Amino acid sequence: MKGRLVVMAATAAVAVAPLVASTYHVLLMLPFMAYAVVLLGLNLLFGYAGLVSFGHALFVGIGAYTGAFLTSHGKIRSLEVILVAAAALGALVAVPVAALCARYVKIYFGMLTLAFGMVFYTFVLKFYRLTGGDEGTPFLRPSLLGRSLDAMPKIDYLVGPYYYYSLAVLILAALGMWRIVHSPFGLCLKTIRDNPVKAETLGIGVTRYRFFAFVISAIYAAVGGALLGPPTGNVDPTLAYWTHSGNLVFMTLLGGFASFFGPVVGAFVFIYLQNWVMSIVPYWRLIFGAMLAVIVILAPEGLMGLVTRRRPAPASRA
Amino acid sequence: MILQADGLRKFYGEFCALDGVSLGVDAGEFVSIIGPNGAGKSTLINILTGITKPSAGSVRFKGREVGGIGPVRLARLGMARSFQLVQVFPDLTVLETLQAAGVARLGRGARLFASLAGDREVQEAALEVAELFGLADQRHMPARQLPQGDKKLLDVASAFALRPEIILLDEPTSGVSTADKTAVMETLVAASRRIGLRAIIQVEHDMDIVFAYSDRIIALHQGKILADAAPAAIQADQRVIDTVIGRKAGAH
């Protein structure tokens, strides 16, 4: 129950942040919330199914470009429609990708997801007429709950309605994922992560569960990706680049994949730390690279592992 | 016949691990497979449980050809197994492990948003099996923290939690101290009555256990069946004594 109190307190803190924190910091919360949605999904694969994807920027990209395309070319501005379309398109693309990737594990799975990510990145970069190439596509300000908010100053829109909309999406995404990992489906995923051979002899079809976990994670990534667009107002191919997939894995490791909220914490710390480090030295990647090494060696279960450690760390988890 | 194998052969390259093995198991039987190391016991069990595809021959389970259909479908058809080298889910507790078997048995794995904690049928079935195997006190302990003997029991218990019609146990008492072996076997026999198991096949090295519990014994040697008979006849079979029992007695 202590955990529940912490989560409720943290949620309340996020909810009052726009009233007390500086605009600058409140704006940083927007990518945090978007990434938190992405990572809740990614961790279904990583923490619960034991599969590390290096290609989920693909689905983040699909979500973001869906929103950009619909607002710029489709004259559709409703964020509800955009999120549903992003989820649907993410799922549609994920089905064939997952069908192939779910047959592989460990490094082969990781490389295959990386390969699909690269294919998509090149597609985004080269299909200029559809995507705007390296310049990207504008993500026009979406309407929220049927209300056009174009008259509002941009900052007011972002720290006001859009902020709370993002928070609502994050809460719904977290509640949904909480149910998934505590469902019979979630338990079967954990058996596959721990011991696929044993899982199969219990009648749990490993490939099928990996497939569905992948598709669900892709839907989350696409929804989170769509939320990333409005704050910057533009979607460009770097969102789909493989280093962006690497960042997602980094955030997950930073927070701790063994805990439900670890990736959310990871996204928060990553965004603020990156911003802070970038403001003092130009070489933020150098600092972050060193940090990643320290995490893997000293705190393999991430920040949440340091906080909630109640049991000895598992000897190894592939 | 619940399970029937005909002319099973298995080659690994040039090496012939199984060379024309045929056997049948009837409802109500407890069959033990014995043989020296390298006789092909594990290969045979792996073929019967669908993990290994035979090079030739057929396996019929409840009259249905099941050769090479894989462990997932076999488990759903009603065949369960445990492993010689203990297989558990290290980070799952005893109860979670048994719940997973229940979820699989009831076909509820697709329930994405249902509450596992609220699934009374799965919860109660898991607790019942935990109690049956004397694991109720450790039910909230992750499998990796269990003593070796309890891991072995959990592996077997999760197979029983599938409520199969037939179960194949690959050395159920290996790694269990001699003093505890009988207790493990008594637990197994009691559990099989409780869940209405129709047949047990075990691979076992401990001849005391084999002779005490088997209705029939199949002796394997160099990939072939040396003898397939009741315990009394096996005990009197000089070839079996020379190749299997004698050697094992010396090894212990």
Blueprint of the fold:
The complex is a heterodimer of chains A (318) and B (252).
Chain A: H1 2-20, H2 23-48, H3 57-72, H4 79-101, H5 106-126, H6 128-131, E1 137-138, H7 154-181, H8 184-194, H9 196-201, H10 206-232, E2 234-235, H11 242-255, H12 262-280, H13 284-298, H14 302-308
Antiparallel strand pairs in A: 1-2
Helix pairs in contact in A: 2-7, 2-10, 2-11, 2-12, 3-4, 3-5, 3-10, 4-10, 8-10, 11-12, 11-14
Chain B: E1 3-12, E2 15-25, E3 30-34, H1 41-48, E4 56-61, E5 64-65, H2 71-77, E6 79-82, H3 94-106, H4 120-132, H5 148-160, E7 166-170, H6 178-195, E8 199-203, H7 207-213, E9 216-221, E10 224-229, H8 231-236, H9 238-251
Helix pairs in contact in B: 3-4, 3-5
Task: Provide an overview of this structure.
The complex is a heterodimer of chains A (318) and B (252). Chain A has 14 helices and two strands; from the N terminus they run H-H-H-H-H-H-E-H-H-H-H-E-H-H-H-H. With 318 residues, chain A is mainly alpha-helical. Chain A has a domain of 220 residues. In chain A, strands 1-2 form a two-stranded antiparallel ribbon. In chain A, helix 8 crosses helix 10 and helix 11 crosses helix 12. The longest helix of chain A has 28 residues. Chain A starts with a helix and ends in a 10-residue tail after the last helix. Chain B has 252 residues and is an alpha/beta fold. Chain B has one domain: P-loop containing nucleotide triphosphate hydrolases (Rossmann fold, 3-Layer(aba) Sandwich). Chain B has nine helices and ten strands. Chain B has a six-stranded mixed β-sheet with strand order 6-7-8-3-9-10, sandwiched between helices. In chain B, strands 2-1-4-5 form a four-stranded antiparallel β-sheet, with helices on one face. In chain B, strand 9 and strand 10 form a beta hairpin. In chain B, helix 3 packs parallel to helix 5. The C terminus of chain B is likely disordered. At the A-B interface, helix 7, helix 8, helix 9 and helix 10 of A face helix 2, helix 3 and helix 5 of B.
